Amino acid sequence: EKKWYDRIGIRGYTQFRYSSTVSGDKDAVSYWPDKSVGEDGSFLIRRARLVIFGDINDHLSLYIQPDFASTPSGSSTGHFAQLRDAYADIHFDKNKEFRVRVGQSKIPYSFENLQSSQNRLALDRNDAMNSCCRDERDIGAFFYWAPTHIRDRFKEVMAKNLKGSGDYGMFAFGIYNGQGANRLEGNNGVHMVTRFTYPHQFSNGQILEAGIQALRGRFVPSTGPAGGFTPVMDAPEKGFKDERVGVHAVLYPQPFGLQAEWNWGRGPQLNDGQTMLTESSLNGGYVLATYKIDGLRWGTLFPFVKWQHFKGGQKFERNAPRNHVNDLEFGLEWQVMKEIELTAVYHMMNRTNVASAPYERYKADVLRFQLQWNY
Amino acid sequence: EKKWYDRIGIRGYTQFRYSSTVSGDKDAVSYWPDKSVGEDGSFLIRRARLVIFGDINDHLSLYIQPDFASTPSGSSTGHFAQLRDAYADIHFDKNKEFRVRVGQSKIPYSFENLQSSQNRLALDRNDAMNSCCRDERDIGAFFYWAPTHIRDRFKEVMAKNLKGSGDYGMFAFGIYNGQGANRLEGNNGVHMVTRFTYPHQFSNGQILEAGIQALRGRFVPSTGPAGGFTPVMDAPEKGFKDERVGVHAVLYPQPFGLQAEWNWGRGPQLNDGQTMLTESSLNGGYVLATYKIDGLRWGTLFPFVKWQHFKGGQKFERNAPRNHVNDLEFGLEWQVMKEIELTAVYHMMNRTNVASAPYERYKADVLRFQLQWNY
Amino acid sequence: EKKWYDRIGIRGYTQFRYSSTVSGDKDAVSYWPDKSVGEDGSFLIRRARLVIFGDINDHLSLYIQPDFASTPSGSSTGHFAQLRDAYADIHFDKNKEFRVRVGQSKIPYSFENLQSSQNRLALDRNDAMNSCCRDERDIGAFFYWAPTHIRDRFKEVMAKNLKGSGDYGMFAFGIYNGQGANRLEGNNGVHMVTRFTYPHQFSNGQILEAGIQALRGRFVPSTGPAGGFTPVMDAPEKGFKDERVGVHAVLYPQPFGLQAEWNWGRGPQLNDGQTMLTESSLNGGYVLATYKIDGLRWGTLFPFVKWQHFKGGQKFERNAPRNHVNDLEFGLEWQVMKEIELTAVYHMMNRTNVASAPYERYKADVLRFQLQWNY
To answer: Who's near C222: CB < 8 A, 6+ residues apart?
Structure first.
């Protein structure tokens, strides 16, 4: 029989950040994905991940990923270990073309959501697609199918350091609780999601991946005092309608890369008077362009520019405030070696403080740095 | 010298659940061992365990078991890593017949408490024995003795997939804090526990294990508002008397298996008026019958039926409410392969909501499913 | 390519404690570093550490150390996994003489702070040096330099079981947030620290290490009700001046060992009336003497005596109360084998309860025991 260390392996990565607000509404800056951004933030461990993974047998693959940079709600100390993923892939066939992924895992919606933060160029995901799902993940069961030659293509993109997403199937369908990763279910119903994506390889080796996805369910937001008044919810007890459809297209950087996504939908949103949550429409997306520079004496460079736009309710924040985003980022990722990456970003923010009432908009330019080590 | 990975190993298991209330007092259902049961529960990761273990040298064995499905009290997000076990076995002799287990570990009381949830047929333990000890564990020191031929018999039961408990000694004696796993001590005294069990092997290979156990100490319950009034405690500052004696008998399934336990004792319990906690008597137990079906094309089947009964205070819940249980379960565990198990249970509940005042009784039939993967 | 288990390793240690107040102000005893000390404390897991470490490549070393005996603030259950360390050592040269340590790690201030709790004789660190930094650690970047022959000397001290600190450089300089391990930054500025130490080896093999360190920054304490009144802070918004300079000298036990440190500084401190936090001076240190007894049939003995003194604000406790310490400890560490250590200490406490107002002083003799297992 195999030794335990041939069935189970350990790997991971850590992201260390520093940010400085260069200009704009300095005191108003509050950026929900990164606590190093804003007035009193200096050094921050954004992610500290360990992955325990392995092919346990021909039909079972394991994936458990705690993040050691998590804080229980209400605690003034952080850096606790909390699950991101904890799932089993149960393969029906020897070629692993058909499988069900059970447990807590990523919801197959969007490309950027599925791409690991270890591989992403921008320091954080775009709000438009990412607002679909708290921490991109939920508890449920997901069916994935991809024929072998497509699975090989997903692998090739990763092996060639082209910033892929890994294999989330050519076709995906899933059911899940819908309240977000690490949250208890809020109603009796489930969310449903489906996705189709196709990575087309041209004869010159270029790969263009494009696809479509949709999800629907009922979401129960949390509410709390905002300006001395707790907004009421204009929704049935089972929660607000939560529906989206999105498209994505990715030209992998050989050497020029282009990536774009957009989605439209409906969900809960705080009204103008900040007195009531109502069902509202939302839409938004992003475009990212990059150019891969190889063959340097020291590593690889990825200069990039990203524009993102979003108008909609931030459903998983308290009171589901209206979030308006119109950001522009100029960045450079330097892969010094395979295990060490440095990223610098000039982030021109034009967005909403969704963390605290009265949910004001601000404009600010923030200089952001990240050191990442992979293991 | 040995490599680290030959001294230390990693293994574990995860339990994924789904429940649906089929009939009865649907809105009243609240089942403390499983949050997927009840109105707003859908998918749940009940346990996500990693075990770090090993024989460090001839006299020291290590066992550390965090559960990644834990929630700090007061936090609205879960899936944090919290210890179940963290102990050292210090062996006095080369044969490891005599040892002391120091740290946080299981209290040697009852058979079902000691049997791992990885091996148990029923999805949750019976209330009668399990109410002795929060999470079956505590912080302390436990002496275990078993002669080599008995240790071999404990191992044989496990190796033959007969749903054993592992080796908790033929004789056990321990002292521990008494407030439950992961809790701070509440008084200056310790709890004491002792247990004797004997696995008799008949000439035809059948094994019948039977034994007796007892514990005593002083327990300090927590109280809080119940119906706008916080009950008072009719006990000295050092806490309520907490005493139990129990018996167990297990015929291992070759192929027919039968398992029964019962215990009697005294402990804190909320009075009828829900105004005061007083010392009261308790008693209860269970009977479980199963039949092991091997040699199928796909895995092994364990159909089972379990009846349990309990009348007593649920001491580690707030206000130690009176808990009346009279449940019947019909279940089937399908071990598809060694690493994948599916269990379905029709659970006829007749019990008390011990989680929130006014601690009402309810009747309901719940259909429950579990997928477990072992690694 | 190397296997994962040749790049990454796992080790750790656990400390199990029991304490009993022998005489003195029994009801008043409250000792912040050890919850087993005091009226309602019996058995305690003080530390349960796992270290995930490794040389990932020639330029990157990894160190992640969660402690499984941590409690989120506000939670009534403990034993959650929380980071102590999570850092990368980035080595500039092949000999690893020059490196930067990035992430959360120990602040290079004091000798005892840097010495691992796994190796320390006394059960807890002295208040005078340790009050510099919550959990001895913070988030930041630290530069270390030590020439190869000094690095070898640091290693020799560890290999010979002489209770060393490991290699924190001959010279160190760092910047860090300053609010303590696992805390968010409280202002926009950084703390700075520097340290120089030199381990001199005499011709007879004796090693005498001596050095100096200093740190400065701005610290923002937390405040809360004390006697029905929350003290105000007499400081700018960016926090109180936080400055220290210290000296250390260590004669390693071959067989007689002597270790002494002292430091002086300024920082926040609650005033006499307990109404206001003001900038105040502080000073204190300790002397520890030991004698190493090898060559016994069973292991190694380290009898030791430690005296410590401190007068100053305990800045990282709520309201930064004035802490007066004048403690004497008589102890014996018995290394039964490399993996198992037993320590007994007669601790004569003369100190302040810094955990709760009115922050009274008490005198008490406490008998303390620790069992430690290493893996």
So the answer is: A76, C318, C319
- CA-to-CA distance for B227 and C71, rounded, in angstroms? 30
Q: What is the 3-state secondary structure (H, E, C) of A211-233?
A: EEEEEEEEECCCCCCCCCCCCEE
Nearest to A48 among C59, C64, C184 (CB): C64
Chains that touch C (3 or more CB pairs under 8 A): A, B
Alpha helix ranges (H) inside A42-83? none
* Contact assessment for residue C349 and residue C153, using Cβ atoms and an 8 Å cutoff: no
User: Domain limits at C151?
Assistant: 4-374
Length of chain B: 375
Question: HSE of B273 in the Cβ direction (CA atoms, 13 Å)?
Answer: 7
Which residues, 6+ apart, have CB-to-CB distance to B99 below 8 Å? B89, B90, B91, B92, B143, B144, B145
CATH number reported for the structural domain that contains residue B63 in this entry = 2.40.160.10
Whether the CB-CB separation of B283 and B262 falls below 8 Å is answered with yes
Residues B219 and B282 sit within 8 Å (Cβ to Cβ): no
Does residue A104 contact residue A139 with C-beta atoms inside 8 Å? Answer: yes
Q: Hey, what are B247's tokens?
A: 């018996």
Q: Which residues contact A229 (CB under 8 A, 6 or more apart)?
A: A274, A275
For residue A77, which residues of chain C lie inside 8 Å, CB to CB?
72-73, 82, 182-183
Report d(CA B225, CA B357) in Å as an integer.
Answer: 9
* pLDDT of residue B181 exceeding 90: yes
Q: How far, in Å, CA of B132 to CA of B113, rounded?
A: 9
Taking every pair of Cα atoms in chain C, the longest distance, rounded to a whole number of angstroms, is 66
* Nearest-neighbour CA in chain C from A82: distance (Å): 9
Neighbours of chain A (3+ CB pairs under 8 A): B, C
CB C166 within 8 A of CB C113: no
C-alpha to C-alpha distance for C45 and A308, rounded to whole angstroms: 49
User: Cβ of A79 and C82 within 8 Å?
Assistant: yes
CA distance B302 to B289: 10
Q: Is the dihedral of CA C27, C29, C35, C37 positive or negative?
A: negative
Q: In this structure, are residues A284 and A260 in contact, taking their beta carbons and an 8 Å threshold?
A: no
**Given C14, C71, C337, which is nearest B103 (Cβ)?**
C14
Q: What does the pLDDT read at residue C224?
A: 95
> Would you say the ipTM is above 0.95?
yes
Tokens of A15: 């992201």
Q: How far is C232 from chain A (nearest CA, A)?
A: 20
Give the pLDDT confidence of C17-40 residue by residue, as tens digits.
999 999 999 999 999 999 999 988
As for how many domains chain B has, the answer is 1
Return the pLDDT at B289.
Answer: 98
pLDDT band at B233 (very low <50, low <70, confident <90, very high): very high
